[in-house]
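Lab meeting, item 3. Inverse folding demo.
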């Protein structure tokens, strides 16, 4: 039986080539995986903040759901819009029950939130005892500088 010389060397070269390709592929995927994980963490945090803000608004009495009422409750910091049937407050932190404060800047680059409330009325501008509440949390992605957002909405009714 004759052996082909050099075949072992060729097999080793092919094996090294395949292992090198695998290592390079894994190395290339690692930053992408880290970036996607960070993005998922940002969306989760923003979703939790928006849900918390919305639940805080829902715990208020119907008549407290005003621009000044939200600021007094620790849900908003500044008034951006304050018309008769619509207002919007902005927040960068939210006071949680129990005294702790949730700060958006700790997790989200240029992060802020808004709470917009529309007082639903008839054609004659008479309130029908419903308010539409829209909570938006926005932030900038660190790598691309693109703005991202999470938004929740609900309707609150007057019980009187």
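The presenter then showed the designed sequence:
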């Amino acid at each position: 039986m004759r052996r082909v010389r050099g075949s072992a060397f060729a097999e080793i070269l092919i094996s090294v080539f395949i292992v090198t390709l695998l290592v390079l592929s894994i190395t290339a995927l690692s930053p992408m995986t880290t970036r996607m994980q960070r993005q998922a963490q940002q969306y989760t945090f923003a979703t939790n903040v928006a849900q918390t803000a919305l639940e805080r608004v829902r715990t208020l009495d119907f008549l407290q759901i005003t621009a000044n009422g939200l600021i007094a409750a620790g849900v908003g910091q500044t008034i951006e819009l304050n018309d008769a049937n619509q207002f919007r407050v902005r927040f960068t932190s939210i006071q949680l029950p129990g005294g702790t404060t949730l700060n958006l800047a700790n997790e989200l680059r240029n992060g802020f939130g808004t709470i917009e409330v529309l007082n639903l009325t008839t054609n004659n501008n008479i309130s029908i005892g419903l308010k539409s509440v829209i909570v938006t949390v926005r932030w900038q992605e660190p790598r691309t500088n693109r703005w991202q957002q999470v938004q929740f909405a609900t309707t609150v009714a007057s019980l009187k």
